């Protein structure tokens, strides 16, 4: 954007110019501020040790186990490592770039969780509220209870599902894989991917509400469509569709200019292709067009179904901005998205007596480390994160003031161990 100052004879006054500037900032016309960078040694990390991570990632691409990817590491609020490797699209001979756009799948869940926390901060809802207060179809739900010898009985749920149940995946809702799988399949609702459905998410969620769930609310961890329901709830409470809500409340304040539910056609040349691991671990291109494991309907599909659990596209840099906001207590570059206390609640362990993973608890769209020894990997108590079905990953370690984003596109992933190596080689580079 260019601003021209006129002399005193101009009809454009200084006041008018200032108004233009204010409006420009409010609608995100100006480019995002560059994230601060630092040499690793100034924040207690080793450049030489981080070079081990570079060598490992490059080898995965050289050995044809990954097409390519982008890894970014930040410590103490500053970017200390960025590595771009391999190809965005091998067949097109298009190299990976730092601004490549990825399907982040279940990394969408944290963005949707933040959206719910924003609405709670605005006094529009409470996470303890029954979902049925906002989506009437959830006032009464059912559960499929397996019978001895096969089959199942459908019974009324013991209580209403709450927003907190959805945030922690304790509402009893799967991806249609439970005892009543036949009914979910008949309704056309299975798998994590709904972006190709020719209907708004609110219609999909109404169908979900009418199906038998896998468990009674609050009794079991069941991973599934919870954040799709939360997305429909955000739309109902805010009066905006999810893309608009996220754009105005999260993306523009943080400078996340390349984060969308559906890809603008002008950005199609930056979209990463999807690959899958074969029996020998070597990658092959996924079908195009395809559904869950394919290239997807993010460009040519109906573009109606905003899936808050698995439908968002982003770059490594955009997602790093989002995570740095959380690591910084809800604020980045002077723009506050959440309060510090909301971030603390989001990243706390809410599992209570509900079994989850060894050494980990359940946050809002994330897992949380409770016991490093029980978990058995390099970590810290309080570290939280998650990943996506297309093989992306992230985590925030508040104790170490460490944030890591890793983007790649591989489904199925087979036996590749890059996520474990990433974690190990990031933590071994800490030297303070």
Quick structural overview:
The chain has 432 residues and is an alpha+beta fold.
Walk me through the structure.
This protein folds into 3 domains: 1-30, no CATH class; 40-106 and 248-427, DD-peptidase/beta-lactamase superfamily (Beta-lactamase), CATH 3.40.710.10; 114-238, Beta-lactamase (3-Layer(aba) Sandwich), CATH 3.40.710. Strands 3-2-1-16-15-14-13-12 form an 8-stranded antiparallel β-sheet, with helices on both faces. Strands 4-9 form a two-stranded antiparallel sheet. The protein is 28% helix and 16% strand. A hairpin with a 5-residue loop joins β5 (142-146) and β6. The protein starts with 13 loop residues before the first helix and ends in a 5-residue tail after the last helix. The chain contains 12 helices and 16 strands. The radius of gyration is 22 Å and the shape is globular. The protein has helices at residues 14-26, 47-62, 108-121, 163-167, 181-186, 201-209, 226-238, 242-254, 316-327, 340-346, 372-375, 418-427; strands at residues 68-75, 78-89, 94-95, 102-103, 142-146, 152-156, 275-277, 283-285, 313-314, 331-332, 335-336, 360-362, 367-369, 384-387, 393-397, 402-407. With 432 residues, the protein is α+β, with helices and mostly antiparallel strands. α2 (47-62) runs antiparallel to α12 (418-427).
